TrEMBL record:
InterPro entries: Cbl-dep_enz_cat, Lys-AminoMut_A, Lys-AminoMut_asu_sf. This is Lysine 5,6-aminomutase subunit alpha. Residues 5-510 form the D-Lysine 5,6-aminomutase alpha subunit domain.
Amino acid sequence: MRGKLRLDQDDIVRAREAAKAIAVDVDRYISARTTVAVERTVLRLLGIDGIDGDGVPLPNVIVDQLLAEGKLASGAAVWVIQAMLAYELSAQEVAEKVAHGELHLLRVPYIPLEEIWVRGRELAQAGLDRIWAKRMEREAWIKRIGEGRQPYLYVIVATGDIYEDVVQARAAARQGADIIAVIRSTGQSLLDYVPYGATREGFGGTFATQENFRIMRQALDEVGAEVGRYIRLCNYCSGLCMPEIAAMGALERLDVMLNDALYGILFRDINMQRTLIDQAFSRMINSYAGIVINTGEDNYLTTADAVEAAHTVTASQFINEQLALLSGLPPAQMGLGHAFEINPDLEDGLLLEIAQAQLARELFPDAPLKYMPPTKHMTGNIFKGHIQDGLFNLVSILTGQGIQLLGMMTEAMHTPHMHDRQLALENAQYIFRSGRHLGEEIEFRPGGRIEQRAAQVLKQAGDLLERVREAGLFAALEQGVFADVKRSRSGGKGLKGVLEKELDYYNPFEAELRERLGLPKREGSGNERGLYQS
């Protein structure tokens, strides 16, 4: 699948080098900061779960107390581990006592930092070992019962009731789905806490909770054993709780997670500083758990024109690739997003879409690209819509996409019903089966429309990336370079949850993850103190 477009390698190098410079600049800025979500994630990985008498998650109880006292910038782990050592308690017991008013973290007998660091590394190793065990479970399942072929057929369930979601997910798996995505309840991305327990009332989707993850994972394992194919589970760790939900997904063996700070900035008005910090840690967790991330460039074409703004999708893919690499995420786990949002009334629109899809495939040859179906130009004419989805499926098999989010002919009318999903699955299965090796048989005419279009988009993407490199990503987002949406560096939701790290800041899980993922050591994670020397 490589080299059909005869792309100029200098243009590729230019774009990738600019994207790398952009990512390094962002990483330099965020490395000196933490967030309330990162600190809550540390507590969850220490083993803290549950809620207090008012329904507030225990990680929030502790982080809120430390934040109010002005002590969170040293890291939540320091204070909790000190209490664990002083009173010989587990992290969960410490949290429960704090919630009941029986323990105040700033009134704990002093424990030398060296002892806290040693115990912190032990706890981090144990926590990450739990995640690794879940990754090994996935590999064992796939080895034992097998899996579907790429492009994976991806469908959504979104009833609001996790138990009804299970019914629909099992039906979809029996009909041929490879990935089940449980859409989150409307607005959950803007909650600065993670709801608790099994939920039966959502709005436009189902709340993402660790218990809901567990329920759906068990259901998909059962139906996977029945159909003889491992069924992947997808949910969202975008929003104000990116790293927390990433950790919950890792602990419950999710396989795919939406993870894209740029999406949150542009389409949910989440503060750019906050979400880029959260993204870095969440992607480290995703990487170690073997979870494939999905990015949201496809959404750019819902607010901007698919022809005029095609290069912004490519530029963003380059940036997301480089940010992911800085978090230790390998290309095989980068489900970089794009979409079939071409206007069906446009002459040669299919050729333009083939050029874009093939361009993405050749620029990111090892990534399981996430390809989104027509939405913007779906009209409610279900017959035309079914044809649009058929063309979308044809482009996917022709260009070797990795994850196929199936189009619904009722897209413009309502949330998909089970029969809508069945028809979508039949559409994709028919085209994938009949055109399985089409891409191996087709070459594009040198100098033809497809080759010229791909070259044009690549050059425009490189030009845009060089402008972003010069201005910096924050300034570029303020200027509205992506999706025709402008956001403020100091605006949006969640900025109050960003803190500059104190000199004694300690996050044992970041330190351990950096060692295990082979990432450079970073000040403020404990590893500069001689604890993590090889």
